[in-house]
Amino acid sequence: xxxxxxxxxxxxxxxxxxxxxxxxxxxxxxxxxxxxxxxxxxxxxxxxxxxxxxxxxxxxxxxxxxxxxxxxxxxxxxxxxxxxxxxxxxxxxxxxxxxxxxxxxxxxxxxxxxxxxxxxxxxxxxxxxxxxxxxxxxxxxxxxxxxxxxxxxxxxxxxxxxxxxxxxxxxxxxxxxxxxxxxxxxxxxxxxxxxxxxxxxxxxxxxxxxxxxxxxxxxxxxxxxxxxxxxxxxxxxxxxxxxxxxxxxxxxxxxxxxxxxxxxxxxxxx
Length: 270
Fold this sequence. Notes:
Elements lengths: L2 E4 L3 H12 L7 E4 L3 H11 L2 E3 L11 E4 L6 H5 L10 E4 L6 H7 L6 E5 L9 E7 L5 H11 L3 E5 L6 H9 L1 H18 L4 H21 L4 H8 L5 H11 L2 H23 L3
Parallel strand pairs: 1-2, 1-4, 2-3, 4-5, 5-6, 7-8
Antiparallel strand pairs: 6-7
Helix pairs in contact: 6-11, 7-8
């Protein structure tokens, strides 16, 4: 299988590193990136073939991974249109819909749109995927194999929901980091050292997430089990409710989804 990456940034590095751990071989992977430093890093780290431009990249790859910024996509893919063949095109560019991508790729329809998140950088990501109807089952499997190299995957039938995926899991790590940040601030206010506050906050989040992942019960029930009537947890949750914490999170996710829709229209114009 021949796989070409357009763009050699952080997410491309994460995908390539994960793919090699899963059995892909360096000779099957080619990367196009105009940056000499990026190419040198990729070649040194993974022994993959790198190209300054599309001119020297192989034609008709099995998979083409679009890993450039969405604002650069239209210009970046133009030199590859004549080289696509029957390649499955995987886009990890946030906000760009498949209609725009297909138009910029000369009407190519074997496209899978993906939304990974930053924990993919350590192999712990979650990626939402959506494919055009022309993508076969085997092509979907091939795309999923690439993205599973950096975590788990979820297929989304309706592309309109990809903005929701972006809002939930794409932006979601920032919400969790904000919670950790608040916990550490509270720890400091309570007299703990920065090191103690960091350990207590992060390991609490890790443990709670692991418990929720292993349990078949809803998060609401797990929360209730920690909350004794008249106890400390109830006092904390009541104060958070007064401050609108849960409502703010829900509203924030919806705001992210709405902004994703707006950006998609702007990015896909032209």
